[in-house]
Each structure stands twice: as C-alpha cells, then as structure tokens.
C-alpha cells in the first residue's frame, strides 16, 4: 500500500471511529466469516515483503480473503488503543509487539490463542518457545509469533582491516570489545570505534548488557533500577564516552547510526530491520549476534511481532484466521528476506533460510533472547529510566543519582 493510500486510510478510520459509523472494504463485507481484516504496522521497507505473503495467500486458494491494512508505525498503537477501547471497526486480526500484549490482555481485549492452537492447522510446538512464552500473560497465550527480532551487532569490515583487525572476526567479550574500539578510534579523522547511542537504540543496548550482567529491571513486583548491575551497566556505557574516549559525546537521536552509514563508526548495535538500509548504503559490513559484554551470561534484548485476535461480539472468524496463520507459518521466506527471522520452525530451520546472510545469525540469538518484563504500560514506566540514562550519557547527571530518580518516578507512577 502506497503512502497516500495509508494516509487516506488513517483519515478514513479516524472519521469512522469518531462518528460511530461502521465501514467496510469491497473485499471484506461485515459478517462474512471467510474474509479477514488484518492490521499491521509495517509501513517501512518490510511492508512490501509482508504484502507479498498476503498476496500469495489470497492467490493460493479461493475460500478465504485477507484484507491487509498497513497503518504507519508511528500511528499504529494510537489506532489500536482507540479501536479496542471503542470496540468499533475492530479488525479480525492484528500484529502486536510481545511487550504490548500484557496491556490489552489484562483488559480482556484479546482472545486467548489456545482457541486457535486447538485447530489442527496451528500447533504451538511449531514455533520457537521463547516467542510463545513472551506472549503469555497469567499463564494464557495471546499471540502467534511472526518473528523474533533481537538486537544485532554490525561492524565496518573496511575499518577493521585498516586498523589491523581481522574483518571477519568481531569481538566476543568485553575485553575484546574495548580493545577493538580503541584501535578503531581516530578522532582526528572523526572516526570512532563505537559511537554510543544516547537515545534510539540505547534502551536495547542497556537491557542487553544488564541481562548479561545477571540483572533485571523488574522482578517479583519490584523495580530494580538502582541495582548494582544497573549501576555497573550505566557506568560501562558512560565510560566508553568520557573515559575510554572511543565515542563522541552529545550524540542526538540516530547519531550513532548516521556515523555508521558514513563509515565513521566502526561498530554498531541495531535491529535486523536495518538490513535493507545497510545493504543499500554500499557499506562493507559484517553482522553477528551481540558479543557477551556482561560477565555472567549470554543474553540479548529481543521483541517479537505477534498475530493477536481482538475479542469481537460477532465472532472471531477462527477457521479463516487459523488457515491464514498456518499458511504464514509455512511460507515466511518473504518475511525473512526483509531481514527478519520468522519464529516458525518450518522457516528458520529450512535450507533456503540458512543460505541467507544475516537471518541465520538472527536465529542464533533466539535461545538467549531476553524480552522486556511483563508490566502494564512498560513503555511509559521504562521511559523514566531511559530519560535518566540519556542525561548521564550527555554528561549532565551522576549515574547513581540518575538511577535513584528513575526508580522514584517509576514507583510513583504505579502508585
């Protein structure tokens, strides 16, 4: 769906919801149990690949029809919130990130997918258990995973070679990471070993290193923002800027990404969704699972896209939904080609998948994926922490004080 079509759809949806009027596409009439209205937030370069899957499904049989609606990612959850709250114009199926499922499942707005997995067409054992576990709330499953997208490690092979490092051997631990970063730093050339993100991907990096150090941000009903592991993580990242001097200071959002694309940042952490942009940039880059920087265990921040079914009075069109999800589970290579790694075992264990460059490395991270804690409104609650982390990385606040302030704000928010 093109940008103008998406923008028109959003205006149409908002108008319909605010006026209380129902609406329907020509291909999906209300009450037709064989037509599925599907919402997704894939408005970036991954959108055409998902469209390809839906198109192929619709052409593969004549019984069911999927009406795909791509909503801009920046507006997606606003639309989800409005629609689920009003219960008007509900889609039959939608994509939801694993860390957002708890917000809606606790409000009884989603169908438990045990209903779907009872179908002979969908078997929970066909998906990676980490992804399934991440969609569980209070013992019940609410999502059928499309993928697992962990933080990944990228490096500039040309800069490695110029620094006398093996361009095909990324660092594996904290010692090597720091040694490589120092060798790769040349301030006089505006070149850095590792440009530290202050926002953007910083939460993913922080949570990865924290988990590798054995820490948790939330456990047994309590925030752990002031834990020794959190303080150690924050000091480590800060010191890369101000002590080790392998990173420029004061970077704005995506400053680390821009430097990487310019060939001025030798090592970079980002998600698998960046593959198309990196390949199109002309960079000679490598990709691997994140190195174990923390001293305790290999972990990496991860999230998932999941199919969820909103609860609807007129029924959930379960046979049609089950048929489509079964098809996606078996025919996810188009999604893999976008850079992602599908959570379906039929895809990530297949020979065509293993012949790809980045995607098999993404799948290597599945077993040590660390999802955000299942806390309602986690995005808002964790913002208190990462706003304080940002101040520390900009040199405006003491790490210990910042974590203490973040803890107080989070506790006050829940109270």
From TrEMBL:
Q: Which domain of life is it from?
A: Bacteria
Q: Which PANTHER family match?
A: ARABINOSE-BINDING PROTEIN-RELATED, DIACETYLCHITOBIOSE BINDING PROTEIN DASA
Q: Where are the bilayer-spanning segments?
A: none
Tell me the protein's name.
ABC transporter substrate-binding protein
SUPFAM superfamilies, per database record: Periplasmic binding protein-like II (SSF53850)
Q: Gene3D superfamilies under this entry? A: Periplasmic binding protein-like II (3.40.190.10)
């Amino acid at each position: 769906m093109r940008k103008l079509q998406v923008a028109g759809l959003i205006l149409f949806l908002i108008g319909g919801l605010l006026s209380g009027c129902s609406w329907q596409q020509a291909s999906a009439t209300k009450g037709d149990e064989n037509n599925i209205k599907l919402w997704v937030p894939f408005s970036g370069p991954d959108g055409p690949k998902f469209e390809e899957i839906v198109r192929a499904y619709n052409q593969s049989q004549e019984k069911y029809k999927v009406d795909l609606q791509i909503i801009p990612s920046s507006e997606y959850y606003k639309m989800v919130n409005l629609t689920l709250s009003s219960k008007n114009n509900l889609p039959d199926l939608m994509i939801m990130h694993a860390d957002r499922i708890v917000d809606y499942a606790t409000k009884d707005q989603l169908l438990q997918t045990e209903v779907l997995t009872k179908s002979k067409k969908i078997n929970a054992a066909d998906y990676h258990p980490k992804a399934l576990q991440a969609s569980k709330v209070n013992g019940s499953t609410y999502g059928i995973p499309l993928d697992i997208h962990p933080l990944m490690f990228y490096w500039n092979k040309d800069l490695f070679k110029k620094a006398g490092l093996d361009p095909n051997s990324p660092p594996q631990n904290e010692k090597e990471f720091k040694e490589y970063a120092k060798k790769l730093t040349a301030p006089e050339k505006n070149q850095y070993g590792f440009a530290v993100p202050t926002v953007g991907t910083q939460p993913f990096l922080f949570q990865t290193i924290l988990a590798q150090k054995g820490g948790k941000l939330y456990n047994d009903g309590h925030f752990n923002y002031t834990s020794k592991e959190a303080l150690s993580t924050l000091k480590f990242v800060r010191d890369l800027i101000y002590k080790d001097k392998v990173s420029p200071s004061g970077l704005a959002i995506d400053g680390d990404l821009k430097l990487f694309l310019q060939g001025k940042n030798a090592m970079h952490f980002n998600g698998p969704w960046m593959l198309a942009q990196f390949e199109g940039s002309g960079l000679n880059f490598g990709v691997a699972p994140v190195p174990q920087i923390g001293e305790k265990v290999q972990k990496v921040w991860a999230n998932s896209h999941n199919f969820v079914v909103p609860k609807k009075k007129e029924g959930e069109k379960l046979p049609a939904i089950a048929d489509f999800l079964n098809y996606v589970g078996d025919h996810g290579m188009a999604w893999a080609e976008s850079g992602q790694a599908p959570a379906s075992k039929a895809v990530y264990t297949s020979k065509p998948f293993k012949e790809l460059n980045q995607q098999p490395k993404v799948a290597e991270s599945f077993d040590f994926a660390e999802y955000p804690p299942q806390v309602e409104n986690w995005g808002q609650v964790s913002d208190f922490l990462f706003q304080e982390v940002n101040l520390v990385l900009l040199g405006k606040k003491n790490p210990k004080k910042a974590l203490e302030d973040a803890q107080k704000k989070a506790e006050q928010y829940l109270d």
